[in-house]
Amino acid sequence: MARRRWPRRVARVVARAALVLIALAALAVAWLHTRWGEAFVRGRVARALAARFDGTVHVGAVDYGWWFREVAVRDVRVVDRDGRTAIAIAAVELALDRGALVRGEVVIDQLTVTDLALDVVEDADGRTNLARLVRPQPASRRGLTIRRLAITGRFELRRADGTTVAVRDATAVGEVRTGAGAAHVRLRELAADLRYTPAAAPRTIAARLALAEAVIDRGPDGVALELRRGQAGPLAFATVHARLGLARGRLVGAQHVELRGGRLDRAGLATTLDRALIGADLAFEVTADGPVAALAVHGAVTAGATALALDGRADLSGLRPRYDLTLAGRGASADIAAARTPVVVSELQLRLVGVGATSADTDVDVELVLGPSRVGALAIDGAAVAAHVTRGAYEVTSAEVRGAGVVVTRSAHTAGWR
What we know:
Number of helices: 6
Oligomer: single chain
Number of strands: 23
Distance between the termini: 103 Å
């Protein structure tokens, strides 16, 4: 009879122990929902964030449901060594898949980041306060899945030369999946307001940014990027496909970029810049292939009756891009440039050789060669103009016009823009 009783005794002991553990867990959860427990959790969250930043971290509040199914962290601020609030977040709210945690996976059903604000300042050496603020972290072997991501926020960059870039009312939704040295990010419905103020000019350029979809796949050797239906003020495109070789955040090896369905709206550009620059809407397509230091660039530009082919080389291995690009074809100046006197051209060639991509760092030699043309009622056999563009200003260095057996040559030093 005693042998029959011992299984029951063991079962009763196990049941009582389980009840004690459940009671202790319930008491622990109940305590975590007291003000002392919430202060404890808030402190743990603040210390975890402080380990990732070389600055001061403030966490206003941490709210969570029973068994931590939902967690919300509010009023997060990260202050850099100069006392500037570099990162601020009104709220981070997430809903966890607890079943995935049991399997050793981190799955977030919903992650909402509300009013993310980044205040980025570039130093004279080209580094930013944000780069100095974030401490390097060892790569995590555990994957992360965010089934639904929603972000709102703003961003401001002040460059060392005085240029400012501000992004306001930014929104995006999407999904994220990482693991095994790879990452997949899909974002949709991206939108924001951009304000760009060059250092060389007090005028601020404003534009609305929109992107229907962005898909980014990161692997050990680089990034595959696909963008659909993008717009930045008067500039728009249908698709961008890219395969970029990357190592330590820099372009290396073979590259491929393909832009299709590009368009530059004449009226929109005039409104953005407060002056007319082109005479008709431009349509364009561009591809770039090859090693990063010797990219082969090809494309086409059309505007009205004008059709031009783009060919050349580009070197993106340095801090400033270098290029030697040529546009050649047939057309009329009224399609390309807004001018009072129309120029009808049978053949033209425009060559750009230089470095830089913004008005603040551009240093480019420009050469324009025209074939037989008509300037108003005047017919000429051809013309050539050379100019130098640097830091938002241009200087015409020479000009030559041929017509009726006469060649007129002039060395000019006419400056403009800024």
